[in-house]
Amino acid sequence: MMNPPLFDAACSACPIRHRAVCARCDAEEMAQLETIKSYRTFAAGDAILWRGEPLAFVASVVSGVASLSKTLEDGRTQMVGLLLPSDFIGRPGRDTIDFDVTATTDVVLCCFARKPFEALIEDTPHVAQRLMELALDELDAARDWMLLLGRKTAREKIATFLDMLARRSHLAATGDAAPTASALLDVPMTRDQIANYLGLTLETVSRQFSVLKRDGIIDQVDRRQVTVRDLSRLQQATGDDADGGVWS
Amino acid sequence: MMNPPLFDAACSACPIRHRAVCARCDAEEMAQLETIKSYRTFAAGDAILWRGEPLAFVASVVSGVASLSKTLEDGRTQMVGLLLPSDFIGRPGRDTIDFDVTATTDVVLCCFARKPFEALIEDTPHVAQRLMELALDELDAARDWMLLLGRKTAREKIATFLDMLARRSHLAATGDAAPTASALLDVPMTRDQIANYLGLTLETVSRQFSVLKRDGIIDQVDRRQVTVRDLSRLQQATGDDADGGVWS
DNA sequence: CGGGCCATTGACTTAGGTCAATCTGCGTGG
DNA sequence: CCACGCAGATTGACCTAAGTCAATGGCCCG
Questions:
Q1: Which of A86, A212, B29, B94 is most buried, by the most CB atoms less than 10 A from its CB?
Q2: Structural domains of chain A, count
Q3: pLDDT of amino acid B4
Q4: Cβ distance A70 to A98 under 8 Å?
Q5: Model confidence over B63-86: pLDDT tens digits?
Q6: A239 contacts in B (CB within 8 Å)?
Q7: What is the spatial distance, in angstroms and rounded to an integer, between the CA atom of B191 and the C1' atom of C12?
Q8: What Gene Ontology cellular-component terms does the record carry (chains A, B) (predicted)?
Q9: Confidence bin at A7 (pLDDT 50/70/90)
């Protein structure tokens, strides 16, 4: 269990101050946000929001990983989004959402009461501008994901997933866009969650991990850690165009 | 071939005036938009934009249907969006897009030069607000599509596709949300395009049309027209939750 | 009448799902 | 400290939905 960091009420000390929905806000707008915000924490596995339930808050992810998922009548489920720090939860202008939101790891949210937040969108331009950028970024990611779900093989899906984790951890560590060397990766989900993310079964996820290991592309340290032995072969295995801006 | 409607330069007469990116603009903002807009038309099958090419314009679809698609190294392709009248093309703040845009039917676009449009986003709140709404709507649609691509069977995919067409044509005809009776549907794409939309092969699309016909759920008038015989059985065949807000 | 272009249908293959057995590591309680 | 149990992961055997390859059919247009 993580030792939950304590968050100061002051936005100026916030780790996502310059990337979240408030990124473009000036001092006065920040002061307004400050009055309607509150922090909430969730343990790994907790439900954050249920589909269809009235939405009292919108929120930014401050730390941890949350996931969005949809379910068919007979219980098949598909993850339709992975929310990382600075990502936004909620749908200003609508009072329900159409998917479940779950804490994948322990999560801290910065919540804003919905009504005053919507008023802020009307009154101050910078919130709407930033929210538009965040929505367009998520739309790009969703489209990459549609290509993966519709057309990639199981092997390509796993390779894409690991390549994404490699890029992200490299980005977080160095601020640099493209990793070039091998790396030790943290896999923040169970096989079952990965399967729901990639549109596979957990058995297929497990088998493809084994295949990539047998091919010498990765090594499995333990169930939550993987080392990439050959990043360029991993990237070839994703099936993407060489110059593909995927996850760029 | 359609008899192309003539569009008046005046926004006040525009068929998408109240739904497009300009929906919330006041008279003064409209005047600004009016100075940077121009109409362009494309024939069915024409490329509108290529992935990666520098983006001089952003645009709204005025009439017709356009599609967004992505392609893997070896040529497999997946449609990642279907643009109908009032939908928006482009990515303010970035000078390329990461997918191809193609005219599925004959298309009329209302194009805005990108730089002045971006300036407008900075200066006037209503454009950014509306663009945020449009992006969030597309994100909802993309998430429904991810569920379809990742988890639905071929039969469910075709049923969902036909149900979507039924809802749309009913909505366009009556302004009403949910169709209840059978209807004659226009299928605006070839089997191959449908396959790329649904993450299937064209043979599987054809076979599933035949199965739904054998089951008495639909009738095929010709290759571009279908009558829905039993809408409630069609909706059951989509696999969605009964109260599912899909395509709502 | 002939030649494309879609669409349909059939025969066969295969990637990935299903079901089931086994393994591994970890926290709990004796 | 060890034994137990449980949750997650792996692996194998088998099955099936959908893909592949190939032949045929209908339709429009010159």
A1: A212
A2: 2
A3: 45
A4: yes
A5: 999 999 999 999 999 999 999 999
A6: 72-74, 76
A7: 23
A8: cytosol
A9: low
CB atoms A73 and B131 under 8 Å: no
Indicate if A107 and A203 belong to the same structural domain.
no
Tell me: pLDDT of B27 over 90.
yes
Q: Which domain holds residue B27?
A: 11-147
Among the partner-chain residues A52, A128, A143, the one whose CB lies closest to the CB of B99 is A143
Split at pLDDT 50, 70, 90, the class of B169 is confident
Whole-number distance in Å between B154 CA and D17 C1': 9
Task: Please check whether residue A211 lies inside any domain of the structure.
Answer: yes
Q: How far is the CA of B233 from the C1' of D25 (A)?
A: 30
CB spacing of A68 vs B239 below 8 angstroms: no
E strands, chain B, are: 37-42, 47-49, 57-63, 66-71, 77-83, 88-89, 100-103, 107-113, 184-186, 218-222, 225-228
What is the Cα–Cα distance from A35 to A13, expressed in whole angstroms? Answer: 16
Same domain, A160 and A117: no
Contact criterion met (CB < 8 Å) for A80 and B131? no
How many angstroms separate the CA atoms of B167 and B224, rounded? 17
Domain membership of residue A243 (yes or no) is no
- Nucleotide nearest A152, CA–C1', reads C15
Written as one string, the DSSP assignment of A170-221 is: HHHHH--S---S--EEE--S-HHHHHHHHTS-HHHHHHHHHHHHHTTSEEEE
> How much is the average pLDDT of B32-55?
93
Cross-chain Cβ contact B151/A80 below 8 Å:
no
C-alpha to C-alpha distance for B71 and B78, rounded to whole angstroms: 6
Chain length of chain A = 248
